[in-house]
Amino acid sequence: MSNAKVLPLLEPEAVAPCCPPLNERPMSADEAEVAAKMFKALGDPVRLRLFSAVASHEGGEACVCDISDVGVSQPTVSHHLKKLKEAGLLSSERRGTWVYYRVEPSVLAAMGALLSGAAKAA
Amino acid sequence: MSNAKVLPLLEPEAVAPCCPPLNERPMSADEAEVAAKMFKALGDPVRLRLFSAVASHEGGEACVCDISDVGVSQPTVSHHLKKLKEAGLLSSERRGTWVYYRVEPSVLAAMGALLSGAAKAA
DNA sequence: TGTCTATGTTGACGTCTATCGAAACAGGTG
DNA sequence: CACCTGTTTCGATAGACGTCAACATAGACA
């Protein structure tokens, strides 16, 4: 329904300031709530495999029919893809009969910087 | 009690091969299950704040009394810290009256590389 | 030595959300 | 219209989150 305004994560200017490096300073409650949604989206084996399948596919986009081989039913796959899309990690596009999912590099970079910064100083 | 053998994630040689970059190839079910546990551990706002508080503290270790200011009761804090420890992200050590938690750099680096690698190529 | 206080952990319980599959529905093609 | 792809709805099961109470462990003090 109101998917377009569920999260402001799709905007790059909303991603960058949301995630200071983990070791810089203690996260505030608001920052943690935003960042936790992204981590939670990847906190499921099925979603992680789906996301990896999309990210490793040619051009960073993949048809659902190519990544439905994760051991669960297709409705469940659609459900997980929807959650990844709501978290801002994927974006869907319909090209004729098939639906293609694509990764969001900005959000991925934000999460990587969040962890890499903490790993560097530790 | 039997904390030492809950997960083999504490060994660096178990961390490195568990997480190929997300965009290299589709994750297997076993790899995804291991990596999802780490992401799931950070998929909660309270845990994320606790982890950030430990990581940003002096020397990467912090007493529980210093990070209990997250808006929940202390038993809840202890529960979340236990989950972070079970995921291999933290390690606890008792120094007298107080208990100090410390970050595990190797696991953090693995997660960062997992995402940074995917962000680079995407 | 014995007791008392303080710090963290653990267990049990209630509540809430997540996950998954079966069936029905929308979108697009030949 | 018949067919296929993918989404949505609905309900049932399982697990996560949070608090209250009780239990270990370490130091203080008489």
Describe what you observe in this structure:
The structure is a homodimer of 122-residue chains. In chain A, α3 packs across α5. Chain A has helices at residues 12-15, 29-41, 45-56, 64-67, 74-86, 105-121, and strands spanning 61-63, 90-95, 98-103. Chain A is built from 6 helices and 3 strands; from the N terminus they run αααβααββα. In chain A, a hairpin with a 2-residue loop joins β2 and β3 (98-103). The first copy, chain A, has a single domain (28-121), classed as Orthogonal Bundle (Arc Repressor Mutant, subunit A). In chain A, 52% of the residues lie in helices and 12% in strands. Chain A is an alpha+beta fold. Chain A has a 3-stranded antiparallel β-sheet with strand order 1-3-2. Residues 1-15 of chain A have low confidence and may be disordered. Chain A binds a DNA duplex (30 and 30 nucleotides) through residues 44, 46, 63-65, 72-83, 94, 96-99.
Give a concise summary.
2 copies of one chain form a homodimer. By secondary structure, chain A is an alpha+beta fold.
Summary keywords:
homodimer, 122 residues, alpha+beta, Arc Repressor Mutant, subunit A, three-stranded antiparallel beta sheet, 12% strand, elongated, disordered N terminus, DNA-binding
CATH topology of chain A: Arc Repressor Mutant, subunit A
Please identify the top-level CATH class of chain A.
Mainly Alpha
Largest interchain contact: A-B, 45 and 45 residues
Low-confidence stretches of chain A: 1-15
Rg of chain A computed from alpha carbons, rounded to a whole number of angstroms: 15 Å
Query: How many strand units of chain A?
Result: 3
Oligomerization category of the chains in this entry: homodimer
Order of strands in the sheet with most strands of chain A:
1-3-2
**CATH architecture level-2 label of chain A:** Orthogonal Bundle
Q: Compute the number of helices of chain A.
A: 6
Distance between the termini of chain A: 43 Å
